[in-house]
Amino acid sequence: MNENVGLSAGQLWKALEKSSPLSVTELKAKTNLDQDMVMLALGWLAREDKVTLNKTAKKKIEVALK
User: Fold this and answer.
1) Rounded to an integer, what distance in angstroms lies between the CA atom of residue 32 and that of residue 66?
2) In this model, does residue 52 exceed pLDDT 80?
3) Residues forming beta bridges with residue 64, ordered by sequence position
4) How far apart are CA 27 and CA 15, in angstroms?
5) Which of 8, 14, 30, 50 is deepest in the core (most CB within 10 A)?
């Protein structure tokens, strides 16, 4: 499972390199990952201090590379 999370984190990273910031919903659509895997991969990237997470006025989470 850890390997899948790491690979998914790489997919998110690549999507964010092309277009940043993206909402969690947009990341799901661009990577074809399910909600749980996106959240696990975001946790991985956040723990490595690779992304910023911001809540928008519409209470959505936007993700951007640091």
Assistant:
1) 23
2) yes
3) 52
4) 7
5) 8
State the greatest distance between any 2 C-alpha atoms of the chain, in Å, as a whole number. Answer: 34
**Domains of the chain from N-terminus onward:** 2-65 (1.10.10.10)
Percent of the chain with pLDDT over 90: 86
Encoded amino acid at 21, one letter: P
For 23, list phi and psi in degrees, rounded to 5.
-80, 165
What is the signed CA dihedral for 34, 52, 6, 33, rounded to 10 degrees? 10
